[in-house]
């Protein structure tokens, strides 16, 4: 798909937590949010003046109550995807294998630990589909 010309960028940062069995944590967007019911990688919008790694740490804390150390966030891939509202999504995806705490959904979202091969069985957000394929092929 060709990105639209001159679309404002939306910078979102996301993270695939990976457990010792190689499973990836995905979360289901709760009711009330855009794309409710779709599965995604934990993360969110990068705020003004924030850098992406800090946004990931903040969002993992807010959404799941886990504390990754920033240096455990490994850049893995990115999504570049036109959005329905005319903006263009740019989303770095990090992977992280070490964090403090147990993931506990703080926003009523469902979570699942999924083998990379099985990610395609979930209704992922469209921008995440190529990322899931990369996780399957490269993890
Ligand atoms: N967190 C996250 N957002 C994603 C992913 N894939 C993807 O297209 N997005 C899009 O990126 C945007 C992130 O917004 P968000 O609503 O999660 O961010 P946020 O928590 O900061 O939102 P808020 O405005 O409700 O506080 C949404 O448009 C969402 O659809 C993903 O894997 N994880």
From TrEMBL:
<dbReference type="InterPro" id="IPR015797">
    <property type="entry name" value="NUDIX_hydrolase-like_dom_sf"/>
</dbReference>
<dbReference type="InterPro" id="IPR000086">
    <property type="entry name" value="NUDIX_hydrolase_dom"/>
</dbReference>
<dbReference type="Pfam" id="PF00293">
    <property type="entry name" value="NUDIX"/>
</dbReference>
<keyword id="KW-0515">Mutator protein</keyword>
<keyword id="KW-0227">DNA damage</keyword>
<protein>
    <recommendedName>
        <fullName>8-oxo-dGTP diphosphatase</fullName>
        <ecNumber>3.6.1.55</ecNumber>
    </recommendedName>
</protein>
<keyword id="KW-0479">Metal-binding</keyword>
<feature type="domain" description="Nudix hydrolase">
    <location>
        <begin position="8"/>
        <end position="137"/>
    </location>
</feature>
<keyword id="KW-0460">Magnesium</keyword>
<comment type="similarity">
    <text>Belongs to the Nudix hydrolase family.</text>
</comment>
<keyword id="KW-0378">Hydrolase</keyword>
<keyword id="KW-0235">DNA replication</keyword>
<keyword id="KW-0234">DNA repair</keyword>
<dbReference type="InterPro" id="IPR020476">
    <property type="entry name" value="Nudix_hydrolase"/>
</dbReference>
<dbReference type="InterPro" id="IPR047127">
    <property type="entry name" value="MutT-like"/>
</dbReference>
<dbReference type="InterPro" id="IPR020084">
    <property type="entry name" value="NUDIX_hydrolase_CS"/>
</dbReference>
